[in-house]
Amino acid sequence: MTAALLNELRAIAGDAHVLTDRDLRASYETDWTRRYQGRALCVVRPGSTEEVSRVVRACAAAGAAVVPQGGNTGLVGGSVPRGGEVVLSLRRLATIGDFDTVSGEVTAGAGVTLSSLQQHIREGGWAFGVDLASRDSATIGGMVATNAGGIRVIRYGAMRRQVLGFEAVLADGGIVRRMPGLVKDNTGYDLGQLLAGSEGTLAIVTAVRVRLVPQLERRTVALLGVRELAGALEVVAAVRGELPSLEAAEAFFPEGVELVCRHAGIGLPFATHPGCYVLVECAGRRDESAELAEVLGGCAAVENSAMASDAAGRARLWTYRERHTEAINAEGIPHKLDVTLPLARLAEFEARVRGTIAAAVAGARPILFGHAGDGNLHVNILGLDPDDDRADDAVFRLVAELGGSISAEHGVGIAKLPWIGLTRSAEDLAAMRAIKKALDPRGMLNPGVIFPLE
Ligand code: FAD
Ligand code: MLT
Ligand code: ZN
User: Which of 126, 258, 328, 354 could form a disulfide with 212 if both were Cys (CB 3.0 to 4.6 A apart)?
Assistant: First the structure.
């Protein structure tokens, strides 16, 4: 059966696009953090939607499970095989299609990377509402599948808000296309929105029509030192209230800045560490740095500040935030817990979480950072064995106690599967299972992700 399936996949995608050799499979079998890995039966890289459809049909007929994969930058282990699945790489679907420069819409193949989309639309005067540090590898299909958030959610929302149309291959190989480019279309269930955040468990996204946002060139970034997260949240609230141009509001702490400085070979932003760093960015058609400075001047919490409006200066300040992920990864294999709290409980969570981790596993090393404006903190923990989930458990229980969510923007994947019941009721889970069963009755699409294997 395996040989017959491999032959069929070769006939569909071409010999060069069915990888069975161990070395060639390797980068598709380990996730970005190196915490999750598994063996694939093979990696298949179809070059068109029709080929994806035929690949899925062939796998369904052979009873082979499929793990869809885009840029493999996901952080919850959902993009790599667990054992013997076919990894279906969408990266070759990298065509950027119809670009409507009047309405600000474009169609992108699932495998288009975020940075290539950004470059493409820039010439027409448009930008994309979602931005992530993984922009050079993360794909539009993967971003829809995870409902990626990133640094601009406070202004433009997460990935699902950008989706105007989609094309997807269902578990039986059927193709659904809704690409009308309509802003309004209430004809039955919104399947595109259902796929956003479905993590490859309901269908395979092959193309997406997305809304664009105006390119705003006049940007000001302010990096501020405050005593504690509560002060950072006051600053964010003040800027949000006064300046609709607020586009990013991020928070991080000395432990992460130390790592970034060491990893990037740069100096500290201020002479001494404040208790908490907050970075805000405003963007508009005109320079608003004076207005931003005035709002910040009225914030008693601000102890240190650095502002930049030129591209190099802004990039320098962003480095302290954006390079957290790679600096942490360079230090070891982290447990990455991406959680949201109601804004009113975020500071309490931050004040308690380090103690919670220490009580669960002596010597574990937490590094926190995240999207303060969204109540979203990334609790990274170094010094744990990949399979030791005692600290994860303690953190997720604290999140649930404070009314938060165990997954803010990265998804459930396999990393959070045991805890999904902490923040979703039995009825809620049953409704989600019913949807999964209806669209993928044999459980062939990304089995073991979101729901445990049956
Ligand atoms: P993959 O990792 O390949 O896959 C992710 C999931 O989607 C898997 O479950 C996979 O099966 C499924 N999938 C992939 N493509 C498809 C498809 N075409 N159809 C159906 N299912 C599919 N995430 C954020 O939300 N915000 C951030 O700020 C952020 N910053 C990051 C920074 C760094 C440095 C890194 C490494 C990651 C970051 N991420 C962030 C996580 C990651 O980049 C996102 O989750 C991204 O959306 C994943 O896209 P991908 O193409 O790499 O998907
Ligand atoms: C980020 O905000 O930088 C990302 O979500 C990546 C991470 O959590 O490491
Ligand atoms: Zn994030």
Answer: 126
| CA 235 to ligand 1 centroid distance, Å | 30
Strands 302-308 and 365-371: unpaired
Q: What is the CATH number of domain 218-325?
A: 3.30.70.2190
Query: Identity (one letter) of the amino acid at 102?
Result: V
Alpha helices in 197-288, H assignment, sequence order: 229-242, 254-264
Backbone angles phi, psi at 46, to 5 degrees: -65, 155
Residue-wise over 313-325: b if at least 16 C-beta within 10 A, else e?
ebebbbbbbbbbb
- Ligand 1 mutation target, pool 134, 175, 321, most atoms within 8 A of CB: 134
**Residues 6, 15: Cα–Cα separation, whole Å:** 9
The 10 Å CB-count burial string (b at 16+, else e) for 81-95 is: bbeebbbbbbbbbbe
pLDDT in tens, the chain (454 residues): 699 999 999 999 999 999 999 999 999 999 999 999 999 999 999 999 999 999 999 999 999 999 999 999 999 999 999 999 999 999 999 999 999 999 999 999 999 999 999 999 998 999 999 999 999 999 999 999 999 999 999 999 999 999 999 999 999 999 999 997 788 889 999 999 999 999 999 999 999 999 999 999 999 999 999 999 999 999 999 999 999 999 999 999 999 999 999 999 999 999 999 999 999 999 999 999 999 999 999 999 999 999 999 999 999 999 999 999 999 999 999 999 999 999 999 999 999 999 999 999 999 999 999 999 999 999 999 999 999 999 999 999 999 999 999 999 999 999 999 999 999 999 999 999 999 999 999 999 999 999 998 7
Most ligand 1 atoms within 8 A of CB, residue of 28, 114, 146 to mutate:
146
Q: Which residue, judged by its Cα, is nearest atom 15 of ligand 1?
A: 142
CATH second-level architecture of 96-214? 2-Layer Sandwich (3.30)
* Domain 332-427 indexed as CATH 3.30.70.2740: yes
Residues near ligand 2 with C-beta < 6 Å? 75, 133, 325, 336, 338, 378
Domain 2-89 has CATH 3.40.50.300: no
Atom of ligand 1 nearest to the CA of 140: 51
Query: Could you tell me the residue ranges of all domains in the chain?
Result: 2-89, 96-214, 218-325, 332-427
Structure tokens at 125: 């005067």
